[in-house]
Amino acid sequence: MLTGTSLPAIKTEVPGPRSVALVDELARSECPAITARRARRAAETGVGQDPIVWKRAKGANVEDVDGNVYVDFTGAFAVAGIGHTHPRVVEAAQRQSQELIHAMGDVYPSEAKIRFTRKLAEVAPAELTHAILGLSGASAIEAALKTAAVHTGRPGVLAFWGGYHGLSYGALSVTAYRDNFRRPFMAQLNPWVTHVPYPDTYRPPFGLAPGTSPEQVSQTTLAHLRALLSGPATGAETIGAILIEPLQGRGGEIEPPPGFLAGLRALCDEFGLLLIFDEIYTGFGRTGTMFACEHEGVIPDILCVGKALGGGFPLSAAIGRQEVMDSWGNSAGESVHTSTFLGNPLGCAMAEAVLDVLVEEDWPARVARRGVEIRGRLQELARRWPERIGLVRGRGLMLGLELITDAETRAPDGALGLALVGICRDQGYLLLPSGQHGHVLALSPPFGVTDEQWEGLFEVLTRAFEECCGAP
Ligand SMILES: Cc1ncc(COP(=O)(O)O)c(C=O)c1O
């Protein structure tokens, strides 16, 4: 039985024989666009790093098909905020699945959808009351982009370097994370998107020197945007919306400087643009507040959420101000934005349970406290290897170690990221690299990881650094 609070128990080599056999089988029937991870890892590290195949998960524990038990510090892409197979979510799924698994989203909605959208509006920042539900982060982003086009009459979007918003065509147009995600499809991507640098204070944009103050990085980036939006022929005349992750996730747990989001809000108000926050990663307590935008008290016009929302069920939403969402106009008898599974009752019932647990168990505040403590521990590591850990990034339980080849050049060290992830996995601790070069060792665990599990990770991680970087 998995408890959810156990330390790892590794019985076989990792991956074990059953995992290897199953992944071989998978490669025979799944498109290599997906199983590509396998080849890439092997090529980059020179060691076989086939995936382990998951069998079950609970709380912070995952068990693979070979019976090995791991502690999951990825939260399975930050989905398992309140933990894997949370009992209240499982109970809601069981109850709902006996009554109604599928309804007719926009034509004949279910009670579960109605209850859930009301609760979502209660949890969302005050002015954000009207939602479009979706099934993936990408679909929430596309709903937000369509809403912005309808509301402003302008097709253009300003998005940021390093931003990850999903890979379907509309979302891929605004994603600027890895070149190879976009290159084959360039001709099919929305041409109205302008990408600008994210105000990364560790590697400041616009030629600013490393060490430039956060205020300066913020002001320089905002000044660039202002010039772009106010100049007569900059190409920004078509822009109707600014889309940003208030803390970049896959881009490498990068926080914007204080005041930057407020600066964006002011620009949007001045130029009549909609501000869209992609909180698909950061939402639902991950950064120590229910939504990351609360840290600075900046409310967007549309908030996109997903990942942790469904407790593991694919569910997302774009939640907007009423006057913005009302731009869609009254229905002429048929929904103009819908899909077969929109507002799936099973997902809505599970998500309602997630929202209840988050609020009743006060998870955002608990994450904030835990985050401060863990950040301190990561900073201890950074002090021991200052030549290889440039910075501790992130907030709450969305944290990362910026790995570098040396402190002078600050060159990103993706190979170190992969090596550390591999060593930790073999010892039963699951981590993922993030950042455009895979050079940020990312932590987005279930919130309830125990003290003992954290201690276990720090022990293994310290040994992994010693192995890869030498004793400090
Ligand atoms: C910030 C952010 N936005 C959007 C997405 C896309 O979500 P999905 O993969 O569910 O389409 C992701 C996925 O990692 C994300 O991190």
TrEMBL record:
Lineage: Bacteria, Deltaproteobacteria, Bradymonadales, Lujinxingiaceae, Lujinxingia
Cofactor(s) the protein needs: pyridoxal 5'-phosphate
UniProt keyword terms in alphabetical order: Aminotransferase, Pyridoxal phosphate, Transferase
Protein's name according to its UniProt entry: Aspartate aminotransferase family protein
Sequence similarity: Belongs to the class-III pyridoxal-phosphate-dependent aminotransferase family.
PANTHER family: ACETYLORNITHINE AMINOTRANSFERASE, MITOCHONDRIAL, AMINOTRANSFERASE CLASS III
UniProt GO MF annotations: identical protein binding; pyridoxal phosphate binding; transaminase activity
